[in-house]
Amino acid sequence: MAVNETVKYGIIGVGMMGREHLINLHHLRTQGVVVVCIADPHLPSQQLALELAKSFDWPLKVFSGHQELLDSGLCDVVVVSSPNMTHYQILMDILNHPKPHHVLVEKPLCTTVADCRKVVNAARKRPDMLVQVGLEYRYMPPVAKLIEIVKGGTLGQIKMVAIREHRFPFLVKVNNWNRFNSNTGGTLVEKCCHFFDLMRLFAGANPVCMMASGAMDVNHKDEIYDGKVPDIIDNAYVIVEFDNGARGMLDLCMFAEGSKNEQEISVVGHTGKGEAFVPESIVRFGSRMEGRDRVQTLKTENRLIKYEGLHHGSSYLEHLNFLSAIRVKGAKTPAADLNDGLISVAMGVAAQLSIEKGRFVNIEEVLDEHNC
């Protein structure tokens, strides 16, 4: 695709996150980007997206289903931001469609490892398509800076990665789909695939086994939908062992609105330690040799960000990166590829299984490593 050629986008699923993508893409209009069509069976979501697009002076063709959008031939790129449990069928329909569409699919890739693997295998047969997974926490400025520090060797060989997310409960979604494990894959898949992905990046390794403890202790206990009480956990501790000897730990609490930072990340190597704080956008790092008095504190920013949005500008940078990958097809691969998506889901599934079984779960129980 030529650098100056207009790239036409379609968005499948225009709920909260789909509309967030629409706004991000509007802020990329100077890069030759336009959204031309949307698909969503939910009329209120359609209407909200249409009102947004009208304010951008972007006329949209509206479809109730993704297949009609694909068959229209209107777009070159598809953003999949529909509910988790719909990703598998939508992705398979895109990958099996005669017209190639590059794809940015929201996390999690799918809700099960088996479905993720089928998508990976289908994508191998379509070298004419790029598929990127929406693991955009990599792009948050403080996280990106900490990744850069780690990759630069400042902290030495990474031994421990601890990520704390203390936040608000799950938001209300269309038809309350995110209240049930069967729709989301479970909280540790739905929410925490982001953090498992970051652990892999920081550790520079793949998971071997996981141990988790968690429950639904506070949120959603008094909610009933179609006669069913939600079953999504709202807090957990997860321990991860990696194949290079590094260890990871996740501390998740979703009834912790009284937190200064939503995410706190600590990465410790054999020679130093680094930390990132979101939304303070601060990074701290220091060495064992120089000690506490010489710890550096940086306020991070990325001047490329034109829209902060719901994720501190990371979605904007994700789109910028994806657009670049599309335009130099063959010379560049997506930053977060299907394998990253698959393993982040497998880690979440293993953690959910560990809670259910009350024991360590080998990653091979949920993922055949030879298929990675």
From TrEMBL:
Pfam families: GFO_IDH_MocA, GFO_IDH_MocA_C. Coiled coil: none annotated. GO terms for molecular function: nucleotide binding. Signal peptide: none annotated. Residues 148-362 form the Gfo/Idh/MocA-like oxidoreductase C-terminal domain. Residues 8-134 form the Gfo/Idh/MocA-like oxidoreductase N-terminal domain. InterPro entries: Gfo-Idh-MocA_inositol_DH, Gfo/Idh/MocA-like_OxRdtase_C, Gfo/Idh/MocA-like_OxRdtase_N, NAD(P)-bd_dom_sf. This is Gfo/Idh/MocA-like oxidoreductase N-terminal domain-containing protein. It comes from Gossypium mustelinum (Cotton). The lineage of its organism: Eukaryota, Viridiplantae, Streptophyta, Embryophyta, Tracheophyta.
